[in-house]
């Protein structure tokens, strides 16, 4: 299974990514070994995720979420 996710960093910013192992990726973010955007913003909290069968679907959704404004991401999270 592949996942598109949004985490909220401790400074209030959001980071969107995709992975095939969500728990491992979250542990990496929280240990400071995650994406370069979250290394100095630990801890992170998972606020949204979607599951997809293929990596291409997850990457496509990640890209569409990255194009959203902060306000639109908040609306997506608070559905």
Textual characterization of the structure:
The protein is α+β, with helices and mostly antiparallel strands and 79 residues long. It has one domain (2-77): 3-Layer(aba) Sandwich (GIY-YIG endonuclease). It has 3 helices and 3 strands. The chain has helices at residues 22-30, 55-66, 70-77, and strands at 2-9, 14-19, 44-52. It has a 3-stranded antiparallel beta sheet with strand order 2-1-3, sandwiched between helices. The longest helix is centred in the last third of the chain and has 12 residues, at 55-66. The two termini are 23 Å apart. The mean pLDDT is 90.
Features:
about 80 residues, GIY-YIG endonuclease, three-stranded antiparallel sheet, 3 strands, about 35% helix, about 30% strand, globular
Helices and strands in order:
Elements (H helix, E strand, L loop, with lengths): L1 E8 L4 E6 L2 H9 L13 E9 L2 H12 L3 H8 L2
Antiparallel strand pairs: 1-2, 1-3
CATH class identity: Alpha Beta
Biggest β-sheet: count, sense, barrel? 3 strands, antiparallel
Shape: globular
Sequence stretches where pLDDT stays below 50 over 5 or more residues: none
Radius of gyration: 12 Å
Output the CATH topology. GIY-YIG endonuclease
CATH architecture tag: 3-Layer(aba) Sandwich
Number of domains: 1
Query: What is the percent of helical residues?
Result: 25-40%
DSSP strand count: 3
State mean pLDDT (0 to 100 scale): 90
Q: State the CATH superfamily name.
A: GIY-YIG endonuclease
N→C terminal distance: 23 Å
Q: What structural category characterises the helix and strand content?
A: alpha+beta
Strand proportion: 25-35%
What is the string of helix and strand elements?
EEHEHH
User: How many helices does DSSP assign?
Assistant: 3
Largest sheet, spatial ordering of strands:
2-1-3
